[in-house]
Amino acid sequence: MKKYKHHLTGLLLVMAGCQLAHAQAEREVMVPLPSIFDFTDGDGWGFGLGLGVEYESAYEGSDEFEVEPDLAGGIQYRTGNNMFFFAGEAIGWRGLRNDTWLLQATLAFEEGREENDSDDGRLDGLGDTDESTELVFEVRKALDADWRYWFDGRLLAGDEGNFLLLGGGWRFGSQNDGSGSELGVGITFHDEDYANREFGITAAQAVASGLAATELDGGFRSIGINYNHRHYLSDNWQIFAEAVYEHYGSSEIKDSPITRNDYEAEVGIGFIYVF
């Protein structure tokens, strides 16, 4: 689930955010989307630090779920319609053009899968998959000036394969300060290397695990839906929530011995303090 949440734009599980009354001036953000963190309030440096808790599929195709804490926030520097950021294991740039085009390029580090990700021993004999470095390029095109509706395209290119998402989204609420809710849908594709990294089984792995050797082709991967919510408790405190559902549409993925469920799901909630 970790990959899909980073490569989709918004989601379906409507989670009630804490609606505490708090009078404050609207923050100035690059685009008014809850999924786009902006700690700078218009210009200069921005710092945010927080913690989130996720309940998610243990690995791609798993029928096991786990609770995992994650740090949230990051460091940002904004000048006009350009922002440079560092968050977790990713560093990147995003820019707003003509008020309706949001471009982003990110260099990210992706953890590999480990045998012990399955408490039930479903991955025994498959070994650990390698960690990888990925370049992610994204374009969002707003269909109106307030970013109520948009189209989204995202390409991941890495040393372990390539991944493409095409989708769109909707933003709800009257706020224009980055708080509120958004919902997105998408369809994904992957190449042969990316597919086999998560769902393929080599001849050597088949001998060690007792599972059938499996080789996948590239092509259609899944459809999904994603929900994001952000609420400002004060000028400094924010809470956020997200939920993701990805349904595998590829028969090859469903037929892989690694795949125990034909879907992945995740819900998460957390807080951020903005300095």
Parts with pLDDT < 50 across at least 5 consecutive residues: 4-24
Strand content: over 45%
CATH topology: Porin
CATH class: Mainly Beta
* Overall tally of structural domains: 1
Run of helices and strands? HEEEEEEEEEHHEEHE
Q: What is the end-to-end distance?
A: 30 Å
Q: Overall mean pLDDT score?
A: 90
Biggest sheet architecture: 12 strands, antiparallel, barrel
List the helices and strands and how they pair.
Layout: H1 2-6, E1 44-57, E2 65-79, E3 82-87, E4 90-97, E5 101-110, E6 132-142, E7 149-158, E8 161-172, E9 180-190, H2 192-199, H3 203-209, E10 219-232, E11 237-248, H4 251-255, E12 263-274
Antiparallel strand pairs: 1-2, 1-12, 2-3, 3-4, 4-5, 5-6, 6-7, 7-8, 8-9, 9-10, 10-11, 11-12
Gist of the model:
With 275 residues, the chain is mainly beta.
Keywords:
275 residues, mainly beta, Porin, 9% helix, 49% strand
Would you give an account of this structure?
This protein is mainly β. The chain has a single domain (2-17, 25-274), classed as Porin, CATH 2.40.160. 9% of the residues lie in helices and 49% in strands. It has 4 helices and 12 strands, in the order αβββββββββααββαβ. The chain has a 12-stranded antiparallel barrel. The two termini are 30 Å apart. 39% of the residues are buried. The model is unreliable at 4-24 (pLDDT under 50).
